[in-house]
Amino acid sequence: MIRSWLLPALLTLAGLLVAGGRAADGDVVTGLVLLVFFLLLAAVGSPLVFPRSVGAAEALRRGASDGRPVVYWRPGCAFCVRLRFRLGRRARRAHWVNIRRDPEGAAAVRAANGGDETVPTVLLAGRHHTNPDPAWLRDRIDGLGEDAGPPR
User: Cα–Cα distance between 100 and 68 in angstroms, integer?
Assistant: First the structure.
């Protein structure tokens, strides 16, 4: 858990130090702008921007029953953040596994990537895809929407 929040905590601390230094020099406005910038970076690098993670076993069970992708990710990963934001609201239609919190998920990623913990790794239709193009995954998730669940 601490590892997940290390980068955001360091970014927040750096922002406070930089902003405090600017404010001490009399440039309060620039200090506030820099603080907001660092806080935004901390938020983007935190687990808060990702859908709620489930365990690998539960994600695999759910993915097998509903056909949705399983996305293995870790906090602080720029490629994971890129995938998450490019998916937009569709990200909620995938099952997310934080490999920092789930050793079984980390083992699955290592098995799929020749021993490396390369994320994001997406399991879809029984195949692993390492760092897939977000547009490709969006299309796959949209295709699931036609068959997923009863009509409203």
Answer: 22
3-state secondary structure of 151: coil
**Short-list 81, 80, 75, CA closest to 101:** 75
Chain mean position to CA 131: 12
Instruction: Determine the longest span between alpha carbons in the chain, in angstroms.
Output: 62
Among 67, 55, 75, smallest CA distance to 119 is for 75
Q: Is the dihedral of CA 77, 134, 50, 73 positive or negative?
A: negative
Q: How many residues does the chain have?
A: 152
pLDDT, tens digit (0-9, with 9 covering 90-100), for 48-102: 777 888 999 999 999 999 999 999 999 888 899 899 989 988 999 999 999 999 9
The residues, any chain, with a CB within 8 Å of residue 12's CB and separated by 6 or more, are 38, 39, 42
